[in-house]
Write the structure tokens for this entry.
Amino acid sequence: MLPVSDDITLRVPTSDDVGRVHELYSDPAVWRHAPHGRHVSLETTRRLVARWVSDWEDHGLGSWLVEDAGTGELLGNAGCSLRNDAHWNLGYRFAPAAQGRGLATRVARLALEAASEKDASLPRVASILEHNAASAAVAVRVGLTLRFRGPDTGNPDPSAVRLLFADRPLDPVSVALILGH
């Protein structure tokens, strides 16, 4: 457990966290910007948590669980994960009651610093749907710059636009790799 301040702690997830994470990831309010991402099965959450655990085991960095320091309540998750051995993916997701308190910004800063310490040669990237203005604002507040704007291929909403914020320019090959093309 990593105490961050008087109000939150960060903790590396374990397989024992699947139920708590599922409660968060199955909440429709958490997914209002991407309803198709909502977890409807516990197995989906189990795979996600297993990936987080693997990120920490394989790369020494991944998504932290963000908990209330006083109650232990799960407020969300945030962190940087190595993807395709090519970039650090910054991600954050918080319960509606925890949003608007600056938690994503605080933890994202820590995650970006940790990614730089692990391997500063790799870009640090946040991939965000354009209509999620709050998430984009976090990316900008932590020093990332909009580097790509284009269609969100594979999204059930054909009008969805994907934004890539990064700490450096991204060449077309890097963009394609990040987007999974």
Observations:
- Strands lie at 2-3, 8-11, 63-68, 74-83, 87-94, 124-129, 145-151, 161-166.
- The mean pLDDT is 95.
